[in-house]
Amino acid sequence: MRTENTVYIDGEFIDSLTEARLPVTNPATGTVIGEVPDCGVADVDRAVHAARRAFDTGPWPTMTGAERAVRLTRLADELASRSTEIARTITAEAGFASAVCGPVHVDGAIDVLRYYAGLVGKEDLEEVRPSAQAQADVRIRRCPVGVVAALVPWNIPLLGALSKIAPALAAGCTVVYKPSPETPLTGYLLAEAVQAAGLPPGVVNVLVADLVGSQHLVSHRDVDMVAFTGSTAVGSAIALSCAADFRRYALELGGNAAAIVLDDAPIGMIAGGLAVYGLALNNGQACIAQRRILAPRERYEEIVAALAAAANMLPLGDPTTPTTLVGPLISEAHRDRVLACIRDAESEGAVVAAGGGIPDEAGNGYFIQPTVLARVTNSMRVARQEVFGPVVCVIAYDTVEEAIAIARDTEYGLSSSVWTADPARGEEIGRRLRVGSVYVNATLTLDPTIPFGGFGHSGVGRELGPEGIEEYREVQSIFVPTSV
């Protein structure tokens, strides 16, 4: 049990001004493992004002890229020294399998930080361009956007945080980071690393808030930009709030990925790959999970049977056990919502080919069996919405053109995959899909060097890669006369 009464503001852990508290529950056992402040307007104001002062009068925005790189590398080292504790905390808070928490959620997040340290350490942030119309040399400068509010969901508590914080800091911005109420303890460990790394006061501020505090943060007029990962509905509200004040925003929102299985795809590759990337990835709670599996009609029964067998073989249970691949869902309410989606699909004519219920060994944890739904059509609600659980839908198609049309028939556009014995053919089909990322014979990953984001209702802007840091910059032109 870890009880926190503080927030991290202006380089110090100080008492929160709220009496409201948020419990932290282990989803594998249903037991409360922590408690943190539910920060309101007063705490948010303190954090934003600290970030504002640090940006307007502090050294961080005026440092060279190389100077910031040294400090970001120091932060990466501090996180690395805490990697085991962070991984255990993510497993306890979010229920993700310990086998992936270390390499994916922790090491992957640190890699993002080191990537941006390396990128900004050798960048030239200013160029001189002669004016074509005036007798002047023009200094073109890439400037930090200002104070950034970073709001991160529970399914990527550290990796999602550093995908925003790292490029923002590298660009010279200051940050108010709000972890999810479901996974706040990871946020405190990040704050401890920030303090140990010696970042200047106010450059990174960390507090936890539910609805009231979060709404105040994203609407705060001293926040120059909001970086958010979460639902499309909340992202839309944030965009409207920022638009009213002409403030910047970057939104990584929902997904409803289609996995197009071509007629030549080896059955073992399909079953093993989609069991992992559709069902086991983050216990099915991943925006890039490959959920709509489009199968050629002549191989439909074969593919359903292989997927069902693979789903039934996925090791489910205690996420601290090294052999576990599928842990619990984040909460009882979310588990019940996913179960309701399965029952609703059955009422529309879908057939449960594997799973579909709560496993006998669930105990008080929030587990669902990995579930394969057959006889699904793309018009069913289960195929239209983001279920966000270990559930895949198998949809039949007759021609590749029909498969492409089904894949594109969604408001989302985050990711898709193509499965085939001919990668060149897979690439050709991928170029026709309206999504931010296409994985041929998928290895789903958030590569620090590769931009990630979506089309349509899946968001605005890109994270990671050189493109990610540009989200946190403004361009300024200074005209300097060549003669007086």
Describe the structure in your own words.
By secondary structure, the chain is α/β, with parallel strands linked by helices. 39% of the residues lie in helices and 23% in strands. The protein contains 15 helices and 23 strands. The chain has helices at 41-56, 65-81, 83-94, 98-121, 159-171, 184-197, 211-219, 232-244, 267-280, 300-313, 332-347, 381-384, 400-408, 423-430, 465-470, and strands at residues 2-3, 6-9, 12-15, 21-26, 31-37, 126-130, 136-144, 147-151, 174-178, 204-206, 225-229, 248-252, 257-261, 290-296, 351-354, 371-376, 391-397, 412-413, 415-419, 437-440, 455-456, 459-460, 473-481. The strands form six sheets. Strands 15-16-17-14-13-19-20 form a seven-stranded mixed β-sheet, sandwiched between helices. The protein is globular. The mean pLDDT is 96.
Helix amount, in percent? Answer: 25-40%
What is the residue-mean pLDDT, rounded to a whole number?
96
- Class by helix and strand content? alpha/beta
* Weakly predicted, low-confidence segments: none
Rg over alpha carbons: 23 Å
Major sheet: size, sense and barrel closure? Answer: 7 strands, mixed
Strand order of the largest sheet: 15-16-17-14-13-19-20
Give the amount of beta strand, in percent: 15-25%
- Tell how many strands the DSSP assignment holds: 23
Q: Treating each run of at least 4 consecutive H or I residues as one helix, how many helices?
A: 15
Please give the alpha-carbon distance between the first and last residues: 70 Å
So what's the overall shape? globular
